[in-house]
Design a protein that fits this description.
Protein name: Prephenate dehydratase
CATH architecture of the largest domain: 2-Layer Sandwich
CATH class of the largest domain: Alpha Beta
Bound molecules: prephenic acid
Oligomer: single chain
EC number: 4.2.1.51
GO molecular function: prephenate dehydratase activity
Distance between the termini: 59 Å
Pathway: Amino-acid biosynthesis; L-phenylalanine biosynthesis; phenylpyruvate from prephenate: step 1/1
Shape: elongated
InterPro entries: ACT-like_dom_sf, ACT_dom, Chor_mutase/pphenate_deHydtase, Preph_deHydtase, Preph_deHydtase_CS
Number of helices: 10
Helix content: 25-40%
CATH superfamily of the largest domain: ACT domain
Order of helices and strands: EHEHEEHEEEHHEHEHEEEHEEHEH
Length: 307
C-alpha cells in the first residue's frame, strides 16, 4: 500500500492537499510532525511520497521545504496542488471570546489573519505552533485558548468553532508538492512545470544573467525565481527556478544541459503536471520538430549530403 507522509498532525491544510493527491484508494496517509520529518521518511524509504507546503501567495515560500529540498539525497516532485486558504478559529469548549488570552497557529496562518485577530481578539497573544493542526492539539490539551486552523481540523478535535471562512487576503492560496525518490520521469502532458535548484558562480559578474539568457534562448517561460542563502558564508546563494515545460522536451533538455555546463551545481526537482493544467506556449523555433529539422540539416552538412 503506497504511504504518503504529510506535514501533520491530522487536520492541516497539507492533509487536505495529500487527500487530493491520494487518488488511489489504497494510499495510506501518514501524519508526521514537521516538514523535515516528511522528507526524511521518503529518503529513508519509510514512506513512498511526502506531501509538503512549498509557497503561500501571501506569506511566500516555506523555508523548511526550500532548505530541505536543497540538501541530502535528492527528491523530485511528481505533482502539485494549489489549495484556497480560509481559516477557522477553534477554542476550548465553553470559552467566551473575552476570556481568550492566547491564540496559537503556524506563523504563516497567524500572518494571514493578523487583521482579523487585531479587530476581534485584541487581547489574545499570538503564539507560534509547528502547524495549524498542532495548534489545535495544543488547545485540546489546554496549553492555549484558541487555534487558527484549517476548516477540516474542526472535525478532528473536540473544540468549539468561534469563526470560519477567515482570510485577510480573500484569494489566498498555498501550493503543495508531492515528492518522491528519483525514478524515471513520467511522460509530458503539455501542461507541465519543471523545478530546479541552481548554484551559479556567485563571484563572476553576470553569471545569473547568463543562466536566465540560456532559458530565454530556449523559449522557456520562467514562473518563479527565488534565492535562499547557502548558510555557509554570507553572499552565497542557491536559486530556485520554476518554469513551464518538461525535461522530455528538447528545448528544456538543452536549457538544463546549458545550466549544468555553467553552474557549480544543478539539482533537478522534477517535471510534473502544473495544478491549473495550463498548456505551455512553445515558440515556433523551440518546438521538438524545429530542433529535429535543425539536427537533420546539420547531419546533412557534416556528411556532405547537403550544404
Ligand atoms: O499548518 C498547516 O495547516 C499547513 O499545512 C502549513 C501551512 C503553511 O506552511 O503555509 C499551509 C497553509 C497555510 O498557509 C498555513 C500553514
Amino acid at each position: 500500500m503506497p504511504r504518503i507522509a504529510y506535514f501533520g498532525p491530522q487536520g492541516t491544510f497539507t492533509e487536505q492537499a495529500a487527500r487530493a493527491f491520494a487518488t488511489n484508494g489504497s494510499d495510506e496517509l501518514v501524519p508526521v510532525a514537521t516538514v523535515p520529518e516528511a522528507l526524511a521518511a521518503v529518503r529513508a524509504e519509510k514512506a513512498d511520497a511526502a506531501c509538503v507546503p512549498l509557497e503561500s501567495s501571501v506569506q511566500g515560500s516555506v523555508p523548511d521545504t526550500m532548505d530541505g529540498l536543497a540538501v541530502d539525497e535528492p527528491l523530485v516532485a511528481v505533482g502539485e496542488q494549489v489549495i484556497p486558504i480560509r481559516f477557522t478559529v477553534l477554542t476550548r469548549p465553553g470559552m467566551a471570546r473575552h476570556e481568550i488570552r492566547t491564540v496559537a497557529s503556524h506563523p504563516h496562518a497567524l500572518g494571514q489573519v493578523s487583521r482579523w485577530l487585531a479587530e476581534n481578539l485584541p487581547s489574545a497573544a499570538p503564539v507560534a505552533a509547528t502547524s495549524t493542526a498542532a495548534a489545535a492539539v495544543d488547545v485540546t490539551e489546554g496549553r492555549y485558548d484558541a487555534a487558527v486552523t484549517a476548516p477540516v481540523a474542526a472535525e478532528h478535535y473536540p473544540l468549539d468553532v468561534l469563526a470560519t471562512d477567515l482570510a485577510d487576503v480573500r484569494d489566498a492560496v498555498t501550493r503543495f508538492l508531492l515528492l518522491r525518490r528519483p525514478g524515471p520521469v513520467r511522460p509530458p502532458t503539455g501542461a507541465d512545470r519543471t523545478s530546479l535548484i541552481v548554484e551559479p558562480d556567485s563571484f563572476r559578474t553576470g553569471s545569473l544573467a547568463e543562466l536566465l539568457t540560456e532559458l530565454a534562448e530556449c523559449g522557456i517561460n520562467l514562473s518563479r525565481i527565488e534565492s535562499r542563502p547557502k548558510r555557509g558564508r554570507l553572499g552565497e546563494y542557491r536559486f530556485y527556478l520554476d518554469f513551464d515545460g518538461h525535461i522530455a522536451e528538447r528545448r528544456v533538455g538543452d536549457a538544463l544541459a546549458a545550466l549544468y555546463r555553467r553552474c557549480r551545481e544543478v539539482r533537478f526537482l522534477g517535471s510534473y503536471p502544473n495544478a491549473d493544467a495550463s498548456m505551455a506556449v512553445v515558440p515556433p523555433n523551440n518546438t521538438d520538430q524545429a530542433y529535429a529539422d535543425a539536427d537533420a540539416w546539420l547531419d546533412g552538412v557534416r556528411s556532405g549530403r547537403s550544404a
